[in-house]
UniProtKB/TrEMBL annotation:
It comes from the Bacteria. Keywords: Glycosidase, Hydrolase, Signal. PANTHER family: BETA-GALACTOSIDASE, BETA-MANNOSIDASE. This is Beta-glucuronidase.
Amino acid sequence: MISRNRIKALTAAVLLLATTFGSRPLLAQATLLQNAPGRKVLSLNGSWNYIIDPYENGFYDYRREAFDQSKTGKGGYYDNQKPSSRQETELIEYDFDKSAALQVPGDWNSQDPKLLYYEGTIWYKKSFTLTPKAGKRYFLYFGAINYESHIYLNGKKLGKHQGGFTPIQYDITSQLSPSGDNFVVVKADNTRRPDAVPTINTDWWNYGGITRDVFIAETPTTFITDYKVQLAKNEPGTLTGYVQLSGEGKAGQSVTLSIAEAGLRHTLKTDAEGRATFRLPARKLKVWSPQSPKLYAVSVSSGADVVQDRIGFRTIETRGQDILLNGKSVYLRGISMHDENPLIPGRARGEGDLRMLLTWAKELGCNYVRLAHYPHNETMLKLADEMGLLVWTEVPVYWTIAWENPATYQNAEAQLSDLISVGKNRASVAVWSVGNETPPGEARLRFMTSLVRKARALDDTRLLAAALELHRDGFKVTVDDPLGAELDLTSFNEYMGWYVGGKPSEITQYTFNIKYNKPVIISEFGGDALAGYHADADTRWSEEYQEALYQNQLKMLSTIRGLRGMTPWILADFRATRRQHPVYQNGFNRKGLISSTGVKKKAFYVLQTYYRQMAQQYDGK
Ligand code: GCU
């Protein structure tokens, strides 16, 4: 007898196949170009016309049949139809070019008051001139579209993608118009769904739209599609990795890896699959660290293709309850952050926003940041490399995911693979996290253990983590989440003094019983404070309450054997629809150490003082 769950799972798998391939084969998403922004690109950032489409009229006919699955494939907004020159005026009930515009990159919620809470479909359209050259290939690349996207070029479907925070890429070489006049149309839909990743319930704003850069990358016909250049796991004197070519001439090609400053230049030969792997002595490399974030100019070339990157080299490992960076014990003085600049509402748009967030973290005394709860902008990782901050980066396997649904797992695994693909050459990336505060259970353990194993198969040089669950019995806190056995770190969120455990002055009575002999990283603690609201330390929402909470949290946590770091929640107040108290919240989660207007609260200085002491203790500075 097949169980109900089994039938559900099989149905989902069949559905997944149907929706992915449908009746019209979609161009598969090409392997993500490594360091895509570093290639020769034509930017499509700027004004895109848009049409709001809550009933998806631009996608389905009135019988709810998808236009792009019909015999002609036509009829949707993606045709970008215009009246023909004939006398009679055809019935066309849309016109992109006469519609309003949204700025790309940028979520739609923060660009128009009527879109602040909008959840549904918005169509975007951008015309561009690009005359394809012989011997070249062209890739249309979106840094991220939240959440589901259908993408069309010159009226033809390129593909469909799910996942709001990882790059989307299509080889458009054969789809470009010979005339040079092209237009791209995107159906972006941020509807929350129970089987999505994340699912319908989160504590952040569901910013929809094309939230990161869009460009077209040009490469030679045979080109460098991917590469990894890092120190071998726990071997500081060995440089290892691979270069992957694509295109008809990929096999048996020479590839040159050069790090001129280190006097390293090595020529490799690709195999029949276009791949060349290497293990090279690299004694002369100066290691990267937060105190000395040394980056090298690395050049990878083959035939007509040359890719330049700036890469740092370091090792990170655990030994018992210690974390060793380049063989030396390190304490992770961290802070959590969302991909949001509180001063300019909405998703962080570009380098200025990101550099500001990381500068605040440096001011706090951090050597480490937790980029919660989803893959952040690739630029954030490059800035962390440059500014000397280690990074915990994460997929949005958050809270109550549909653990039994195969399509949900495939989606989570695809997002994890893309996260690792984008971050694998970044010295700052020290931790891959497979999720946050997920409720223990058999299906959840299977799902997340599979993600851990996938991550290790893709990259064995980083630490694996997740924000685990704990349970309390009186003042005894126990951490024995079975997922912890699969991970390199014991990380968990605890909210003593805010959600549980009484007032700040009462929390130092808690003791922690942790099952694993691994380094302990507190992935979250904190409490809300409305900046400028002052009262005594027992008055919730005041800065003094948050200040006392941090003081007592640090006292309580310092009793934990094996404590090797923390990322308190959170650097700055952030928008969250769950937070509707009309006086203290107004749609913001106020656990920030910095307010939504950039004011540092009293608790900021408590943590800053503690981090100065820890830096003195570990780094002697
Ligand atoms: C949770 C969760 C965060 C959330 C925070 C809070 O631990 O991980 O995403 O914002 O608590 O409740 O403020």
